[in-house]
Specification:
251 residues; alpha/beta; Rossmann fold; 2 domains; 16% strand; binds S-adenosylmethionine
Length: 251
């Protein structure tokens, strides 16, 4: 399947806030209630931080932070510290996490661009979940280099693959998107969800479009291995775990 850099609504600061909130909630709903993707990612990240002796997990491109929330609440994360940030930070949610877990979570409320190097420290594990496809193909190697020099370890979680099966499954996101007002009925924001998922259902369509773009932008194992070897001078051995509809790359 050809790599096509389709426009992505999520990650565009011009997208109105209520739409972005609904989009992020749809990902959370899909990856927690429909499939256990975030829970598996959280377990894998905590396990790797422990195995590699890293003390801090920095979630880049964290959206509104559902993965960090899961990790923080996991008893195996005892003693680990967490940082949560995004290009378009969800300030309220990050601050709420920081308040609830003082000393354990650091909320960065200014914009953090993961494509730029930043000194996170050798004890940091950088985490990118459902976000690498925001980087166009030609810029991805540079982002791999930036992340590699910025911390002791990097993990990238991808909730899709570049396969026909994944393409079909990803387009089914429209159904959980339509179910969002019911799925998240206990959370504040029901009127917003009813408006943008039911009455004027632009967000389910945006989610479908982003999912399509997400699949078409994924890399094969060979592309990942070559880019990581090139950008780290062969100093970090990549580990790649593939599922039918997900991928994890760590180095
Ligand atoms: C599909 S959302 C996934 C959010 C979250 N990781 C999750 O799994 O729920 C992708 C996120 O990547 C962020 N993003 C895109 N490009 C970025 C960049 N260059 N630096 C930091 N974050 C970025 C977007 O703002 C968006 O929140």
């Amino acid at each position: 399947m050809k790599t096509v850099n389709l426009y992505q609504f999520n990650g565009d600061p011009r997208v109105p806030r209520p739409w972005r909130q609904c989009l992020l909630e749809i990902y959370e709903f899909c990856n927690t209630a429909v499939r256990p993707f975030y829970r598996e990612a959280a377990e894998a990240a905590i396990g790797r931080a422990r195995d590699k002796g890293l003390d801090t997990i920095v979630e880049l491109g964290a959206g509104h932070g559902p993965l960090t929330r899961l990790m923080v609440e996991d008893p195996r994360a005892e003693g680990l510290r967490f940082v949560v940030c995004d290009l378009i930070p969800a300030v309220d949610q990050y601050q709420e996490l920081e308040r609830r877990y003082p000393g354990k979570v650091t909320a960065i409320t200014e914009s953090v661009d993961f494509s730029r190097p930043r000194e996170w420290g050798r004890g940091a594990l950088l985490l990118l979940c459902a976000a690498i496809h925001h980087v166009p193909d030609e810029a991805r190697s540079e982002v791999i280099r930036a992340m590699s020099v910025s911390a002791g370890g990097v993990m990238v979680f991808v909730p899709v693959r570049k396969t026909w099966l994944s393409l079909v499954l990803s387009l089914l996101i429209v159904f959980p998107a339509l179910a969002l007002p019911i799925g998240f009925i206990k959370r504040p924001g029901t009127l917003r969800r009813i408006l943008w998922c039911w009455l004027l259902p632009v967000v389910p369509l945006m989610a479908g479009w982003d999912a399509l773009g997400g699949v078409l932008r994924q890399w094969s194992d060979v592309q990942w291995r070559c880019a990581i070897a090139e950008q780290t001078g062969g100093n970090r051995k990549p580990e790649i775990n593939n599922g039918l509809n997900q991928q994890m790359i760590a180095w």
